[in-house]
Amino acid sequence: MTTTFPDVSISTERLVLRAFETADLPAHIEMMNDEQVTAWSSVPHPYTAGDAEEWVRRIAPEERTAGRGIVFAVTEFLTQRLVGVVQLQETDWRLRATEVAYLTAPWARGEGYATESVLAVAQWLFRDQKFERIELRTAADNTAAQQVAQKIGCISEGVLRNAWIVRTQTEDGGWADIRTDLIVWSLLPEDLEGVAEQMADAGGYASFTDWN
């Protein structure tokens, strides 16, 4: 039984999803210190150069080699600039199921990059890797993440009560932890039928083009 994802890159009309590289470090540090990333994720704050080095050189590559999932740096095709991250995690190789997480850099929001990149990964998983289920978990008030799930055809399955911690800024500029619910979404191969075509018809993009 296969227990690791291949070392691949995925291309869409506007994006290239690939492994992190040393050249990504400055943009990665800036992205991970963004207020929205701090609020909705569990990344260290402040996110230091040491954190970034550890992520790029050890943590991200080991996700794939250890069989837990795979991490993609999402970059613009034309500029090669880092615009986000898509990560597959908690992979169950017997069930052919995995969980996807994603974030977008502040300078790239509003362009549909999260939807485009997550949809491309889902298509690759279902078509090439023969996976049967993708799960997403979004904080109850994270409407941007929920919109991505809805746009690619995910189905809301329920709520995990009090299952996550988000952060909110305090009056003194610090951050405080707050417990919140998680909405659980799922995506099956049949849920993708017609999704890319609907996006193209709505003036979007040809989501998935190639992997290698």
Short summary of the structure?
The protein is α+β, with helices and mostly antiparallel strands and 212 residues long. It is built from six helices and nine strands. Strands 7-8-6-5-4-3-2-1-9 form a nine-stranded mixed sheet, sandwiched between helices.
Task: Provide an overview of this structure.
The protein is α+β, with helices and mostly antiparallel strands and 212 residues long. Helix content is 29%, strand content 33%. The protein has helices at residues 25-32, 35-40, 49-65, 113-127, 143-151, 195-201; strands at 10-11, 15-18, 70-76, 82-92, 97-104, 133-139, 155-169, 175-187, 210-211. The longest helix has 17 residues, at 49-65. The protein is globular, with a radius of gyration of 17 Å. The model is unreliable at 205-209 (pLDDT under 50).
